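To fix ideas, we close by showing one paired sequence and structure record:
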Amino acid sequence: MIIPVVLSGGSGSRLWPLSRKLYPKQLLPLMGENTMVQDTVMRLDGLDDLAGPMVVCNEAHRFLVAEQLRKISKGASAIILEPVGRNTAPTVAVAAMHALMSDEPEAGEAVMLVLPSDHAIADAGAFRAAVSTGFVQASKGHLVTFGIVPTCAHTGYGYLHVGDAIDDGASKVSRFVEKPDAYTAAGYLASGEYLWNSGMFMFKVSRYLEELEKFAPEMLAACRQAISESRVDLDFVRLGEEAFAACPANSIDYAVMEKTTDAVVVPLDAGWSDVGTFSALHEASGPDEAGNVAVGDVKQHKCKNSYLHSTGRMIAAVGLENHIVIETSDAVLVVPADKSEEVKDLVEELKKDERSEALMHREVFRPWGSYDSVDMGERYQVKRLSVKPGATLSLQMHHHRAEHWIVVKGTAQITRGEEVFLLSENQSTYIPLGTTHRIANPGTVPLDIIEVQSGSYLGEDDIVRFEDTYGRAGTNES
């Protein structure tokens, strides 16, 4: 059996303003209609003896991940929530331990396929063929990594030096090497003996834990404690927070793969990209004859080798060369293509300035739908709420603000104090400060409401929850 373990904990700061901390790149449709995490799961279709995906993600992304899997009819076998980031070695360890808790008698012999959720792969068939090769090697007890056949002397990736051939296209790993300088990378490419390190792995559940016990026993003990203290919350597995926070942070490469004597590499030539920067996204998106990629409402004239991405307003560009232009509802980024790596430095400056744009988009997603902050001023805020069919907001109240709701699409079921009533399009109601209230969408179409808030404090933490469908009762979690 193959257990896909999808790692969805990154923030993708180099793709700001498309990617934000609370809505990172793996949850965005950067390469087509589907999001990257959806593509990661969907490209597994066609593999034999495949279990449901196990996803490890940040707690703040849990409902987004669950909803995106639901939309493609791919139910997760587990969604494990990391209370803090500890890199890939502990993440995969808790996934392995969770797999051992299943009713499967041979769970330790199952093979985990570890996949970052933010990679683009153009040739899914070639990817599945490589996975099939990796499965054979992993079933023999090897720890498999996938090496990308290089297309250039890239200095942004680590490399694998390919050792002696084994069989079926797999080879021993001679050594792992860090990101090289340009001269060294050119030598690697010319030799034909090196592959890019992809960060994708295959190994038996039992073998990974055996090697971790040998090379990182302290990490293994902390992960065991975190799993023993875990609890199930709706569709999610919450790890023991203190135990996992005490776990040493390390990658699979450093903790296990560089130390084991059983590391094996399978070459992968499938149009792979880690989509780590806008330049990488530009290349992976298939530029036109002039080298341009235009996404959304874009009008360009005599531009060359540029990536232009609009999420709403029109981008108009004339004579632009080798540039990245990104438009969102609350930010516009303009950067030379050869400086796209430095976007992450800009995001750090935004964080230091405590700018909300570093964390979230203007439209914020919730398990029941989303809200968009349309306007804000002293003592007032206007939002557009979009509630999914059948969804219900929590039963709540506010200490510092009153709210006025106007239905602009669909039908709303309103709870206001002891009253429960329906509102249709163009109807409205007022929720006084301190009054218990709730919105539900009993219909089959999305419900859109304009909410006007007024009061002395309008922060999202001014919420007292009494009941909640999504397990947030008793909290002021947004």
Remarks:
- The first strand starts at residue 2 and ends at 8.
